[in-house]
Design a protein that fits this description.
By secondary structure, the protein is of the alpha+beta class. The chain folds into three domains: 159 residues, Ubiquitin-like (UB roll) (Roll); 256 residues, no CATH class; 127 residues, Up-down Bundle (Four Helix Bundle (Hemerythrin (Met), subunit A)). 49% of the residues lie in helices and 12% in strands. The strands form three sheets. Strands 7, 8, 9, 10, 11, 12, 13, 16 and 17 form a nine-stranded mixed sheet that branches. Strands 1, 2, 3, 4, 5 and 6 form a six-stranded mixed sheet that branches. The protein binds adenosine-5'-diphosphate and magnesium ion. Adenosine-5'-diphosphate binds next to strand 7, strand 9 and strand 12.
Length: 700
């Protein structure tokens, strides 16, 4: 066995390990519940818990935890040792019962609940997600058995990201099965969404990071003039990976493989010090869990290499920010990817219906999809000067766009454009079969062969929400289509008509051009598509009547849950901006302004000395004037930012508060940054109090 095969899954209580360690009937029961739902009996749970504990202890674990995903967007854990009361001889006994495996009551009352726990009941419970395997987490804390769990309130409201995701997967399963049945697939018993998230990140030297309060508190630079060199040469993208970064990637891969995460692709990204990791896709809820572990492991391993991993969507102004491409497909358990068009998509009626339903779903719920990719950092990407745009549209590529056009215009798609040969023009190189469709890098929602790639998601965000929304909106479209088709007298005609109808009604959502262009913004407006610029403007999408109806119908969210989530968005936004504003005040007041004052003193002294020596001091005097002007501007902006931040904190209504931060505090922040960045360019480098962009981006 190679090192990798030996390492892979070492820290996971896989099905294989369960099969080895559990009595046959118990193992069967676990599989049945994982596949079909239902509950484990307490006897079964006890046997599983015992086996899990034995395995964990054999591998050095001392504690277990119910690992969950509260609405902070990251994960939470509270460790309990396996120790229990010693026996009469004073010998330590370790314990872990079925009850402790299945259910936990972590209290955890300080997590955001958007008022849910105050108005209802304070108790919060965690429940084992049997479909995501338990694993061992190794850190200086020792070895901890982590049990992936959902987190709900006493009255059953979801307080986390996993519960609605699992509910949405069930909804999609039920509706997608109806669709495949209509096309004669009787073998499939389950349909699962699969997800492969490509994760972008930055690395920065730890020592430099520790000198930047903004990186420490906000995860991004709040000041900083551009370095003389940025990403314009495209020499970092896919470039040779530097030794220090390579050593980090090697350790990272090994840690991820141990956790059973299929870390596959690694490369340098476009911006200096930016990188990417892509795993092989997996079932949606496992992919979500794994992505959390990827982000966490990146941070931990970076520290071991005296670096910090920045997952913020926009750590540096002026170069690319980071996103997370959420590749999503729908698969039956008898091996059919419902998004696979085959060679002749024009003849593949099931695929065309699925495609038509997805176009309808995305068009009907573009606001929800946009909302699902919103987080504080992502406001710097979506709708700012960076891709993808905040306007949700679908890229289909030449081949499918042509098929849709034929269907809409004539009702039949007689042909499908084929790729043909790509001639390399070199006799010793092979000619290639070309893909029928080229790629598009500017679309937020692009069809890429046999999956959709949702490119709007932010790099630091959980991918639970985007996938919950995708599953939900597509389940709704499948439901509607299945209801019509199941009642049809002539299925062939009905399906044909329905595809044509959906494609005609929703073709406005298709856009194959340059999503970054100004023309598209105008064109999208003409088509009546949403262009929602910020996280807090996207939030109300959650609670429109249309959304509430969708989520309640499929039992994914109740209205109360949605309202609580909307409220948390405003809270989170206001808190994050408050931290940023206070950090700027701190840095400007204690570091930047004092440094500039000192520098102005040096210049003033020099002006006087030069004058005293009888020479003209025009250069020094001019420099002094410029510095003093900018210093005044900075001081004024600094006072203003302090003033509006104080006002913001006093606002009671969370929504009003969030909007005040967006409209007023953010503007004041920009106004303070501007003179400070200009000063950075002219103040003596040895006197500048914080590492510069050149230091941060080119020293790893
Ligand atoms: P691309 O080059 O089109 O972005 P890759 O093959 O590099 O595609 O894959 C990108 C990500 O998409 C990977 O995480 C991969 O595992 C995932 N992926 C590939 N096929 C599928 C699929 N059918 N469903 C979901 N994710 C997929
Ligand atoms: Mg990709």
């Amino acid at each position: 066995m190679s090192e990798v095969t030996e390492l892979f899954g070492k820290n996971v209580f896989t099905l294989g390990k369960m099969k080895e360690r559990l009595p046959k009937n118990v193992y069967k029961e676990v599989i049945r519940v994982a596949d079909k739902g239902g509950e484990l009996s307490m006897e079964t749970a006890n046997v599983v818990a015992k086996a899990m504990k034995d395995w964990a202890e054999e591998n050095g674990a001392t504690h277990y935890t119910h690992w969950f995903q509260p609405l902070t967007g990251i994960t939470a854990e509270k460790h309990d040792a396996f120790v229990s009361i010693p026996d009469e001889d004073g010998k330590m006994i370790t314990e872990f019962s079925g009850k402790e495996l299945i259910k936990g009551e972590p209290d955890a009352s300080s997590f955001p609940s958007g008022g849910l726990r105050a108005t209802f009941e304070a108790r919060g419970y965690t429940a084992w997600d049997i479909t995501s395997p338990a694993f061992l987490k190794e850190s200086s804390c020792g070895i901890i058995l982590c049990i992936p769990t959902a987190f709900c309130s006493y009255t059953g409201e979801a307080l986390d990201k996993k519960t609605p995701l699992l509910r949405s997967m069930e909804a999609l399963n039920e509706q997608a099965l109806r669709i495949v049945r209509l096309f004669g697939n009787k073998e499939a018993t389950k349909v699962t969404p699969c997800v492969g998230p490509e994760q972008e990140y930055f690395l920065v030297d730890s020592d430099l990071y520790m000198k930047r309060l903004d990186l420490m508190f906000a995860g991004r630079t709040l000041f900083g003039a551009p370095a003389p060199k940025g990403q314009e040469m495209d020499d970092h993208y896919f470039g040779v990976i530097r030794e220090r970064v390579g050593a980090f990637m090697k350790d990272l891969n090994e840690e991820l493989w141990k956790l059973g995460i299929l870390a596959k692709t690694q490369h340098n990204e476009v911006a200096p010090a930016q990188h990417e990791l892509a795993p092989i896709f997996d079932t949606a809820n496992i992919a979500v869990d794994h992505n959390q572990l990827v982000m966490e492991t990146m941070k931990r391993v970076a520290v071991n290499h005296n670096m910090r991993c920045l997952l913020h969507e926009k750590p540096y102004a002026g170069v690319n920010g980071s996103g997370k491409h959420n590749n999503w497909s729908i698969n039956t358990d008898n091996g059919v990817n419902m998004l696979d068009p085959g060679d002749t998509p024009n003849e593949n009626m099931q695929f065309l219906l699925v495609l038509a339903c997805i176009l309808k779903a995305v068009d009907d719920h573009a606001d929800l999809l946009r909302q699902s990719a919103a987080d504080v950092g992502n406001d710097h990407r979506l709708g700012a000067n960076e891709a993808p745009p905040a306007i949700i549209s679908v890229f289909l590529g030449e081949q499918l766009e042509d098929v849709v056009r034929q269907l809409v215009e004539t009702g039949v798609a007689a042909t499908a454009i084929q790729g043909g040969k790509l001639e390399t023009g070199v006799s010793t190189l092979p000619d290639f079969e070309k893909d029928a469709t080229d790629r598009n890098r500017t679309s937020p929602f692009a069809f890429t062969g046999n999956k959709f790639e949702f490119r709007s998601v932010g790099s630091s965000d959980s991918i639970a929400s985007p996938n919950t929304i995708l599953n939900a909106i597509v389940a709704e479209a499948f439901d509607e289509a299945a209801t019509i088709l199941e009642a049809a007298d002539d299925f062939e005609i009905a399906v044909h008509d329905l595809i044509k109808k959906y494609m005609t009604e929703h073709q406005r959502i298709i856009f194959n051009g340059d999503g970054y262009s100004d023309e598209w913004v105008k064109e999208a407006e003409r088509r009546g598509l949403h262009n929602i610029k910020t996280m807090i403007e996207a939030a109300p999408a959650l609670t429109t009547d249309r959304s509430v109806e969708l989520f309640e119908r499929f039992k994914i969210f109740t209205r109360t849950e949605l309202e609580s989530r909307e409220e948390i968005i405003y809270e989170t936004y206001a808190k994050s901006l408050n931290i940023e504003a206070l950090t700027m005040v701190d840095m400007a007041g204690k570091q930047i302004i004092p440094a500039v004052v000192k520098y102005a003193g040096v210049l003033a002294k020099s002006v006087n000395e030069v004058k005293a020596a009888g020479a003209k001091s025009s250069v020094e005097a001019k420099m002094l004037d410029t510095v003093v002007d900018l210093l005044n501007e900075a001081e004024e902006a600094y006072q203003k930012l302090k003033e509006v931040s104080a006002k913001a904190t006093a606002i009671k209504d969370v929504k009003e508060k969030a909007f005040y931060y967006k409209d007023t505090v953010k503007t004041a922040m920009d106004e303070l940054r501007k003179p400070c960045d200009e000063l950075e360019m002219i103040v003596d480098k040895s006197m500048w109090p914080i590492p510069t962009y050149a230091d941060l981006m080119f020293e790893v």
